[in-house]
């Protein structure tokens, strides 16, 4: 088999193709002297609001800022409880903690890796009650109010939003969509009989423009999306030191603005995002075709209500770590998203969770492997990835046969 090195992610090709347009953004900024705020940020916010199907989009410095500011603006405060999943990047829970709330977890769905609505409903039934005075949903043990749910649209696929929103409404919780990996993904809602873009269904949505995202800046960047004028106004103050106009501070805020140059870069790239997402879906479907014939490789599950954009292409395999080493030795890049669930991280040991608390997440964490995925990935490269996995499986199968023949333990 002829082999070539295959990167996990290739950021050079799209930027080389757009070099003239991206350089033009930089030149325009140098000549105008507008580096913070201004027309480039305003224009990108309007573009992204239209793309996401929302009334308001507010550019911020990062996806973490987007999550934190959305929670603040939605009224989540110290002493509250916010529910999310342990199968996500720590930014999701950092944002909860940094507004003074307590993160609590529910397990994921075994097929989609996103929040299980069944587990969410079970959490409320087992752990919560209605406060007789405030009529709010609170934890039975502590009386802390449960005020927010953060579903994570993971790997480019949305969580089951109809079910989650229904549960949230029953308990008067705001829903902040962590859409940091889901630019352009969509969900078919039976409640409205229509498709909805990520970031448009909850109280607010949060996006990251970290360079490796489907829509990535040439540095840091993020966006809050919402249909609420109040949340829009609050996030705009929070990102700019709490001021509505210079030196007039209604609240304490943050330095969380989106740079004008990054906004200009993102405006250029947003025009290509639908095409790039289409290519990712094509590459994912070709991977699915290749792995149909494989025993032991579980391809991503795509529900009929989902239109994922495959920020990552994540399979499940036994002997994951050995397979990853085999692929790396063949020059094939891979990733692990995420090998240690948040409830088992040292940073959250004070929450009191233990191994075994979220078995679906823990099993997935031991088996998931992210394969090369980017719009310019070729079928020939994918063939090479699949052949290398097939070689590994044959080696492992041969080894098991030999151990069986000699009576050695498998």
Structure description:
The chain is of the alpha/beta class. The chain has 2 domains: 12-269, Aspartate Aminotransferase, domain 2; 273-406, Aspartate Aminotransferase, domain 1 (Alpha-Beta Complex), CATH 3.90.1150. It has 12 helices and 17 strands. α2 packs antiparallel against α9 (260-291), α4 runs parallel beside α5 (91-98) and α9 (260-291) packs across α12 (379-406). The protein is globular. The two termini are 30 Å apart.
Layout of secondary structure:
Blueprint: H1 12-17, H2 19-32, H3 39-52, E1 56-60, H4 63-73, E2 81-84, H5 91-98, E3 102-105, H6 117-127, E4 128-130, E5 137-139, E6 146-149, H7 161-170, E7 174-178, E8 186-189, E9 194-197, E10 204-208, E11 222-226, H8 229-238, E12 243-245, E13 248-249, H9 260-291, E14 297-298, E15 306-307, E16 313-317, H10 320-329, H11 359-367, E17 368-371, H12 379-406
Helix pairs in contact: 2-9, 3-9, 4-5, 4-8, 9-12
Secondary-structure arrangement, i.e. CATH architecture of the largest domain: 3-Layer(aba) Sandwich
Q: SSE order, as H and E?
A: HHHEHEHEHEEEHEEEEEHEEHEEEHHEH
- What is the number of domains? 2
Query: CATH topology of the largest domain, anyone?
Result: Aspartate Aminotransferase, domain 2
Proportion of strand residues: 15-25%
- Computed over alpha carbons, the radius of gyration is 22 Å
- Share in helix: 25-40%
Question: CATH-wise, what's the superfamily of the largest domain?
Answer: Type I PLP-dependent aspartate aminotransferase-like (Major domain)
Described by the principal axes of the CA atoms, the overall outline is globular
Uncertain ranges = none
Task: Give the CA-CA distance, first to last residue.
Answer: 30 Å
CATH class of the largest domain: Alpha Beta
The largest sheet, given as strand count, sense and whether it forms a barrel, is: 7 strands, mixed
Number of helices: 12
- Strand arrangement within the widest β-sheet reads 1-11-10-7-6-2-3
Q: Give the number of DSSP strands.
A: 17
